[in-house]
Amino acid sequence: MLKTAFDRLVAASAILLLSPILLAIAIAVRVDSRGPGLFCQVRIGQRGRPFRIYKFRTMIDGAHRMSANISPDGDPRITRVGRVLRGWYLDELPQLFNVLKGDMSLVGPRPETPEYVSLYSADERRVLSVRPGLVGPSTLGCMDESERLAQEPDPGHYYTSVLLHERVRLDLDYLRRRSLRYDVRLLLRQATAILRHETKSYRDEHENKRVPVRPAGRREGSY
């Protein structure tokens, strides 16, 4: 398939070119706080198959045992290096290896953990028909997610009742529009949003609004 070949070629090239940076980040994470450089977590992939996703650790070791699998803005579990990595989305770079392995695609619905996938409706489970992506519509549409969580008295309930389904709704739109051209467009759009620390929100794109985004504004699991 053209998309698979494109994904693996880009992932392999990026890993090769970025290898010094990947090594430097791993060392910085280890020096900054006790624990491994990488964080692995079970996510649900295509056809409901579980796989282990790779990320640079951005929280203190054992953070997943201290609180729910969400991270509001200002979460004290986030390390100094972790805050920088999250702000520039550098913690996601190890997922290039997931793309190379075939667990993920460069672009697609963002994979969730099993406890959140269990809350999907029958229609929402359609997002599991394709490989999950390193970048997806919900990434662009919810770059302010951590700020929104921080504003709620019960962030966990707000995530499961509102944000989770908002993310899935955005990712379902990908199934309708997916193509190699659309993938490239989303990759470029995400890179621009990260570099500018702002985005024309995917969920508001038809309203022509510019939405400013703080660097660390997202969830992406406990780490």
Q: In sequence order, what are the helices and strands, one letter per element?
A: HEEHHEHEHHHHEE
Portion of residues in beta strands equals 5-15%
Low-pLDDT residue intervals, each spanning 5 or more residues: 206-217
CA radius of gyration: 16 Å
Which strands sit side by side, in order, in the main sheet? 1-2
Biggest sheet layout = 2 strands, antiparallel
Strand pairing plus helix content: what structural class?
mainly alpha
Distance linking N and C termini: 32 Å
Shape: globular
Total count of domains: 1
Average pLDDT for all residues: 90
Instruction: Identify the quaternary structure here.
Output: single chain
Number of helices: 8
Tally of DSSP β-strands: 6
Helix content: 40-55%
Structure description:
The protein has 223 residues and is mainly alpha-helical. It has one domain. It is built from eight helices and six strands, in the order αββααβαβααααββ. It has helices spanning 2-32, 80-87, 95-101, 114-117, 137-141, 145-150, 155-177, 180-196, and strands spanning 38-44, 50-56, 105-107, 133-135, 198-199, 211-212. The strands form three sheets. It has a two-stranded antiparallel sheet. A hairpin with a 5-residue loop joins β1 and β2. α1 (2-32) runs antiparallel to α3 (95-101). The two termini are 32 Å apart. The relative contact order is 0.16. The model is unreliable at 206-217 (pLDDT under 50).
